Hints:
Structural class: mainly alpha
Strand order of the largest sheet: 2-1-3
Number of strands: 3
Number of helices: 9
Largest sheet: 3 strands, antiparallel
Number of domains: 1
Amino acid sequence: MRAALTDDALTLAAVGIVAFVIADVVHEALGHGLATLAVGGQPVLLTTSYFSSSGSWSRWIPAAGGIANLIVGSLFLVALRLLRPVSPHVRYFLVLGVAFNLLFAMAYPIYSGIAGFGDWAAVISGLSPAWLWRVLLVVISVVSYYLSLLLLAVEMRPFCGSDNPEALARLRRITLIPFLWALSAACLAGALNPRGWTNILTAAAPAAAAAFGLTQLDHFSGVRSSNPSVPNAGPITRSLGWIAMAVAVLIFFVGVLGPGIKLS
């Protein structure tokens, strides 16, 4: 399988950055932001790792980030199924769009349940017994995260399709590169956050680290298929368009959203 040798690393990184930034902005701006407006709150600051507001508060505000990711991830999945893109670049972008959105949504409750911090800790705040709600967060999140990985394995099948060592090596490469670049972008932006460098550890890095399961898809049987009707995705060759888009997105994400946009 020669495709493993011709996938362009820079383009893989570029597509990964764009897909991750979309998931991050969906979570903070579309999720928390729109929920704040819906309950009559006052938006204050939008950053890459949190959305702050004042005034009216509702459990829907912290819950809305994950809900927005779930909705948008599902829309990416619908687009993937309906459009059936021939271009490996577009297919790759749509799969990563599903991955970063769904895994972010499904992993966050694990983090909140264990650490007692973040969106879902705020959602269950005041509910008792607290230990039971935290256990429920973790259990439900682990199950939904695993089911999401099963789904992603099937969607990644065109990029692998067999037990061939070269095919599995390709799969590991095209999942690890976007994950590492997404993690790097999140940390760079987090370093500029008004709350200081500790924000990297508590919010910025965990948001990208939620997609770690993407790098483990080679362990799932769903990526393998002996069905000849499953199309094989060609190599993801160098694309100056995707690279230019990623540079523009990264400048905005790190330079503008990193320090935050004051809304009030």
